[in-house]
Write a structure and sequence with these properties.
single chain; mainly beta; Phage tail protein beta-alpha-beta fold; Immunoglobulin-like; Ferric Hydroxamate Uptake Protein, Chain A, domain 1; 22-stranded antiparallel beta barrel; 12 helices; 7% helix; signal; TonB-dep_OMP_SusC/RagA_CS; membrane
């Protein structure tokens, strides 16, 4: 900003036009007509004000984004509180504005509006003037003229209403963004009652798929995909960047109360992160302090967790019928004489506890700002009779920003967490699996003692065993940042940070044999040991894993305006290094289970095992970016990153990852004159993303340690043997991304819509040679993976938001929809020949299974005798009739076809609604998956299994009771009938809150108080529920592993003071 011989009032106007700051002052106290000259670029507002009022008696105070100007004199703090004025502040659409500032003009006497936009202020007299301001709106002065109740409407200041979006290594105004970026405010994540932050994102970002494969407390890390699969090698997870530091920690153990925003980079915008960007990038920004008095916020919530969509297994009577027993045998089980066992009811608790507490503090002065937090999460175990398992987590964070001089700023961030996790000796999933392998005819207990099940397994083994698996995880991260405004070069700044993260984990696994019981013919109790369930003898393993990562980043930023031409650019260098060490000790036998310590274990050297390893890795990166716009109308951005990784040979370590994007803000053109459209933008991007998560040392030959070779009949000599051969030219997987987007803002910005079309082509995927060299040659199994594969992913996504009000009722509706479909281009397939060409995966979606196509069932002898009706093997009545795909007259594995669907949904949707009315607020988050199918063939009835009731009710019994599936123990194939539609719609979060009026809270020293009730995973609507096999999202194809999902009901309180 360069201003020559202009008035102070003109300086104010200029600052207000290019920032969110507003000046509040009395005209007779400040000489705003005085002429000044200023030449300032990229400086803090404090520096500008000091220069502006250096030789005057003007005093300034920063109140958030309000700048209060007064004369340098002692102000009267105590006022004659003889008049009380109250009212409400609204926008130009009549929507209340919570957090608006109301000041008595010429004083520091003021308040902020509450959640409903209302305020109450004691002032000095009945004829004073109120100064009313709110970010994004024009400041307004209101003469009260003795009025005690006011309704104040503020006018939007469009130039100041711009949302700022976090991008890779910087930020941009939303209108200047030319790539596919989605951003969520932290306030939206706090209202999801889940212990993992990643799960909170479900349904809130278009194209983002979040699933939780395991729901065990402390072991419930979700899987996140950005716009579907990016590779077929399994390395599809997005890169997590926290406050600019990549790989600092995972997303899931962060405290949502610390989060300012979460940003997802989905296209060429991610290329600035180079070789780790192929799966997309998630940027997490934590909260920082602002100028003002200390503010404390305390939140607490207690939840009750219970399983949902639990499979309904058959009862004992139904299973006996399926096994062919007579009605006489079944009758005692029907009338209650004999009791069957509901194994899931025996294993899963109806309710377990969960709680979360958080305390934050923030504030600051002109020189130092701070944000600090403490967090605690506790989750109880979910197995009946288990009082030892669970998860406890402790978080802390401190972000401090200090202004050391007019040009130099120092930031010091420290964060840490401890996770204290106790898991049962066998996982929750393994235990529940046993409920599917144990017949309901068997009692759970005999004479009060647990029984054994199929092959000595017991569904009670986990809860009743003394064993457990304990882990203590400590993570500590520290970041120091320096920002320096370089003198004499307008717009040039230097930024650097250093980060160190230490992650250490101590684990102790104590496994003991499980004892089960039975009765002999005389009713005497017999004790048995469950062989290998989980172990044959007591076993103890202790392990310690420690890693330390160092990240150093330095960059020069340059920002300059040349009239209507605006340039923002940077160049940077980053170095990353990781060291880790692992050590483990194990004893495989104990004389007693009383002392689970290593020293108490066996001294037999054959039953003592020790292990250890160490690892180092590093990356060296150079990158830069330039952004240009002309009058905010024509937008352009280019970035390039050069990455070097030790994962590859010296000749292949360097990779280049460019990204380019452009945008056109059509609504700023003079020719554009559509009254109801305020914002219309076209944008497009192209880039190359990288994936180096492919395993290390593929470029070297692999040698394995052999246990020993026998020479001369008795001499055993250890040695090495050659394994995989080297692939010295191994390099990065590359993902070319293309995106075309449209943005619409309509009806006074009440409605906003984004539409994106995208296509990805991933090449150089590491796969093995299948066609050019086969195992028959004798060397195929020793060949390393090479950069041969190619894969495509394409689709589109829509997001729309609408906000409005009806009187005091305010509401916001946001919906998103995405459709993604992939295709395997090349995987070096062998020649299938004429009879199996339909099984080629090239040209088909990746990960879709092979299955038979059902054309009917054999329901009569005539069907069996019909030569045109074919089945698998020796067919019986009730069996499936399969399609002869290759027309060879027999049904075998060559007749399987590739399904069009797998367990990754092609369509994901979200609907998020928030509303408020007179202190009440309501939030509803809904998400849905569609075009997803899962196989249920393992749930078809077997005589020794605890089979789903649905299948026993639909078995083929005879021609009079043909059912809908084959007879007992038959038809358990992956086919077009056993593949079920697993689409669903779920009410993910529903929260109702009430903010107690401030006039009551102020009397007890609180700024605000809110009570709420929250439900998580409340309702699921799905055709899959008809089969009662479990939750459609958590269900795993072709497995007895019922993965439980849980709903949570939470009651909580938020306090501000």
């Amino acid at each position: 900003m360069k201003l020559d011989n202009v008035t102070i009032e003109q300086v104010f106007n200029k600052i207000e036009s290019i920032s969110e700051f507003r000046f509040l002052y009395e005209t007779d106290a400040i000489d705003v007509k005085k002429n000044v000259s200023l030449e300032i670029k990229n400086k803090k507002i404090d520096f500008v004000l000091e220069e502006l009022f250096r030789d005057s008696n003007v005093k300034y105070d920063l109140l958030d984004r309000q700048i209060l100007l007064t004369q340098r004199q002692v102000m009267q703090n105590k006022i004659n509180q003889s008049f009380n004025v109250s009212g409400i502040v609204l926008d130009n659409n009549g929507i209340p504005l919570p957090g608006a500032t109301i000041l008595e003009k010429g004083t520091q006497n003021g308040v902020q509006t509450d959640f409903d936009g209302k305020f109450n202020l004691k002032v000095s007299s009945s004829d004073i003037i109120l100064v009313v301001s709110f970010v994004g709106f024009k400041t307004q002065e209101v003469e009260i003229n003795g009025q005690m109740n006011l309704s104040i409407s503020l006018e939007e200041d469009t130039a100041k209403l711009e949302e700022v979006v976090i991008t890779g290594y910087g930020s941009q105004k939303r209108t200047n963004v030319t790539t596919a970026i989605s951003q969520i405010k932290g306030d939206n994540l706090v209202k999801v009652a889940t212990p993992t932050l990643g799960t909170s994102l479900t349904g809130q970002v278009p194209g983002l798929l979040v699933t939780t494969p395991i729901s065990e407390p402390g072991n419930d890390t979700p899987t996140i995909l950005v716009r579907g699969l990016s590779t077929i090698t399994g390395a599809n997870a997005p890169l997590i960047v926290i406050d600019g530091v990549a790989n600092a920690d995972g997303i899931n153990r962060l405290d949502p109360n610390d989060i300012e925003s979460v940003t997802v980079l989905k296209d060429a915008s991610a290329a600035i992160y180079g070789a780790q960007s192929a799966g997309g990038v998630i940027l997490i920004t934590t909260k920082r302090g602002e100028i003002g008095k200390p503010k404390f916020n305390f939140s607490t919530g207690y939840g009750f967790v219970s399983p949902i969509s639990v499979p309904k297994y058959s009862n004992a009577a139904l299973q006996l019928k399926g096994l062919g027993f007579s009605e006489e045998v079944i009758e005692p089980w029907l009338d209650g004489t004999n009791k069957g066992t509901d194994w899931l009811d025996e294993v899963l608790k109806n309710t377990s506890g969960q709680q979360r507490h958080s305390l934050t503090a923030s504030g600051g002065s002109e020189t130092v700002n701070y944000f600090a937090s403490l967090g605690y999460v506790s989750q109880e175990g979910q197995v009946t009779g288990d009082n030892q398992s669970g998860n406890k987590q402790y978080n802390f964070r401190s972000n401090i920003d200090a202004k050391l001089s007019d040009r130099l700023k120092l930031s010091f961030d420290v964060s840490g967490r401890r996770q204290d996790r106790v898991l049962l000796a066998r996982s929750l999933q393994d235990n529940i699996r046993n409920t599917g392998l144990t017949t309901p005819l068997q009692p759970a207990y005999v004479q009060g003692m647990p029984t054994g099940g199929r092959v000595n397994q017991s569904a009670l083994i986990v809860a009743k065993s003394e064993g457990n698996r304990k882990d203590i995880v400590d993570v500590l991260g520290t970041t120091i940042r320096l920002d320096y405004d370089i003198p004499k070069i307008d717009g040039l700044t230097f930024k650097m940070f250093g980060n160190i993260v230490t992650n250490q984990q101590y684990g102790k696994d104590w496994l003991v044999p499980f004892i089960y019981y039975d009765e002999d013919a005389n009713g005497n109790l017999i004790e048995y040991e469950a062989i290998g369930r989980p172990v044959n003898r007591p076993q103890l393993t202790e392990r310690f894993d420690r890693s330390t990562s160092l990240t150093y980043n330095a960059r020069f930023n340059y920002s300059k305006n040349f009239g209507l031409h605006n340039i923002d650019a940077f160049i940077a260098y980053e170095q990353y290094k990781l060291k880790s060490n692992f050590i483990q000790a194990q004893r495989l036998d104990f004389d007693s289970t009383a002392v689970p310590e290593l020293f108490a274990g066996t001294t037999d050297p054959n039953l003592i095992r020790n292990n250890g390893s160490s690892n180092e890795s590093a990356r060296q990166n150079y990158f830069g970016q330039i952004s240009y716009d002309y009058d905010g109308k024509y937008l352009f951005q280019f970035h390039l990153r050069r990455d070097a990784s030790e994962r590859f040979s010296e000749n292949e370590r360097v990779g280049y990852f460019p990204g380019i994007s452009a945008g056109w803000l059509i609504s700023k053109e003079e020719f554009f004159n559509v009254s109801f459209i305020e914002h219309l933008k076209l944008r497009s991007s192209w880039g190359i993303l990288g994936n180096d998560a492919i395993g290390r040392f593929n470029y070297l030959s692999l040698y394995e340690f052999a246990p020993g070779y026998v020479f001369d009949g008795s001499l055993v000599v250890g040695g090495n043997r050659e394994g995989l051969l080297a692939a010295p030219n191994t390099t990065w997987e590359k993902k070319e991304t293309r995106n075309l987007g449209f943005e619409f803002g309509m009806f006074d910005r009440k409605l906003f819509l984004e539409l994106d079309f995208f296509k990805y082509i991933t090449s150089d995927i590491l796969i093995s040679r299948n066609a050019t060299v086969t195992d028959v040659s004798g060397i195929g199994s020793q060949l390393p993976n090479e950069n041969l594969g190619e894969f495509e992913n394409k689709g589109f996504e829509i997001q729309t938001t609408y906000r409005n009000n009806i009187g005091d009722f305010n509401y916001n509706i946001s919906a998103n929809f995405s459709r993604t479909k992939n295709e395997t281009i090349f995987i070096d397939e062998p020649d299938f020949g004429e009879s199996r060409i339909h099984q080629s995966r090239e040209g088909r979606p990746w990960g879709t299974p092979l299955m038979y196509v059902v054309e009917g069932r054999f329901l009569s002898q005539a069907d069996i005798d019909d030569p045109n009706k074919l089945g698998l093997g020796n067919v019986q009545l009730g069996d499936w009739i399969y399609r002869d795909i290759n027309n060879d007259g027999i049904i075998n594995v060559d007749d399987r076809v590739i399904s069009d669907y797998n367990e990754i949904p092609q369509i994901i949707m979200g609907l998020n609604i928030s509303a408020s009315y007179k202190g009440f607020d309501l939030t509803v988050n809904t998400h849905a998956n569609a075009k997803v199918k899962k196989f249920t063939h393992f749930y078809i009835a077997g005589e020794i299994n605890n089979t789903a009731e649905y299948y026993f009710k639909n078995l083929y019994y005879n021609e009079a009771e043909p059912g809908t599936i084959p007879a007992l123990n038959r038809g358990r194939d992956m086919n077009s009938v056993t593949q079920k539609d697993a689409s669903f719609v779920r009410i993910k979060t529903l929260e109702l809150g009430y903010t107690i009026p401030n006039k009551y809270m102020n009397k007890i020293g609180l700024d605000n108080a809110r009570i709420y009730a929250n439900g998580y995973n409340l309702f699921t609507f799905s055709k899959f529920n008809d089969y009662q096999l479990g939750d459609p999202e958590a269900f795993v194809s072709g497995s007895f592993h019922y993965q439980p999902s849980f709903k949570t009901i939470t009651i909580g309180l938020n306090l501000g003071f």
